[in-house]
Amino acid sequence: MEKKILLLFICALFAVGSLASEGVKAKTYNINLDTDPLHRWDDVIEELYNPDVETFIQSLIKQFVPSWLKLPLDFVAPLFLKRRGDLGQEIIGISKKIQEMNPKTSMTEGMAWLLNEIYVLNMGCTSIVGEHEDSHIIHGRNLDYNWPAELSKITFQASFQRGGKTVYHGTMFLSFVGIPTGMKPGAFSISYDERDKDNTLAGNVLSILIGRMLPSWEIRNTLETQTTWENAVEYLSKTSMVAPAYFIVGGTENNQGAVLTRKRTELVDKWLIDTSADRWFLLETNYDHWLPAPSGDDRRDPGNAHMNALGRKDYSTETLFSDVMVENPTRNKHTVYTTIMDSKNDVYETTLWP
Which of 84, 165, 305, 351 is the most exposed place for a label (fewest CB within 10 A)? Predict the structure, then answer.
């Protein structure tokens, strides 16, 4: 099923059509990590959840979840989520809050859990980390998905705070507790691109059952627990996960840019910025960087051309956005959002493309 959806996604990705000339800045919510995780997302849900969102949730469940699976999933989920610490408690709390607002909702604990898995299967992405001539690291990512109009309505920035101080940022979907795009001010930025190789639903479910975490959950763990770019790269190189992934990690100093190509349980490749070799930026989509990009989904070569045309001297948060991330096909009809990150200067800006 997921392969069929992915093929439809690739075929549609470069469909001819006009793109909105201007995006919309994502709203930012402060998420208080000092509060009970069961109620951590209440304010966001109260503002974003509505009948249209419920319709979208129902459509996802109908498309991805066989009717026979719903009952056993709803039985197992509470037991499983209680063993997942704060993130599991957050999913339980999200489900309970939505049920409080709409007793007829499809958002049971089992469905809330499964939606986090569904997001992993079908993300198309472009991530770029580059270094200006003054050693300034800037990181951008576009997230592409099959439902950009619907997802843009439930996409927002979160500033996670502890003791009244922001400790990290993330770009989030409603009900999604992992972080596919995030930044720790003064330390590092991370984006997660799907790696299609060996990314099967059966393999992912098996990985969940034996206790592994989603890649986006591991990013959130990294933002919570690691303090430097080097620590983040080491952690994301070694952790075991539900699905294969590319982790793109930017830092604050010279040559602190990496693309980590991951299997579920091991590192396949570590690709680093090396300004002494004139490799001042790295661009990752959804395919191994050492192999040719597929002709039906080549976002890599146009993106590289735009970066080389921009040049290292003129590389900035503004030009990365205006000269690269919004250019076709880096931005396309399926792009939900663009996030620009500068950890050194605590710049974190997400633009939605409704």
Answer: 165
What DSSP string describes 53-80?
HHHHHHHHHHHHS-HHHHHHHHHHHHHH
Q: How far, in Å, CA of 342 to CA of 351, rounded?
A: 15
- Residue identified by tokens 């590319």 is 246
11 has pLDDT over 60? no
Bridging pattern class, strands 165-173 and 124-131? unpaired
- Record the pTM: 0.92
Under DSSP, the state recorded for 294 is: P
CB 93 within 8 A of CB 37: yes
pLDDT category at 6 given cuts 50, 70, 90 is very low
pLDDT (tens digit per residue) in 49-95: 999 999 999 998 888 888 888 898 899 898 889 889 999 999 999 99
Q: How far apart are CA 283 and CA 96, in angstroms?
A: 40
Q: What percent of the chain lies above the pLDDT cut of 90?
A: 77
Contacts for 112 with CB less than 8 Å, ≥ 6 apart: 77, 91, 92, 94, 95, 98, 175
Query: Greatest CA span in the chain, whole angstroms?
Result: 60
Among candidates 272, 229, 99, which has minimal Cα distance to 175? 99
Strand ranges of the sheet holding 28-32, from the earlier edge strand across to the other edge: 28-32, 155-162, 165-173, 181-184, 188-194, 245-250, 257-262, 267-272
Does the annotation count 11 as an active-site position? Answer: no
Nearest to 171 by CA among 154, 187, 185: 154
d(CA 41, CA 317): 30
SS3 category, 160: strand
* pLDDT tens-digit map of 130-169: 999 999 999 999 999 989 999 999 999 999 999 999 999 9
Backbone angles phi, psi at 34, to 5 degrees: -85, -10
Which one of 44, 125, 137, 179 is the catalytic residue?
Answer: 125
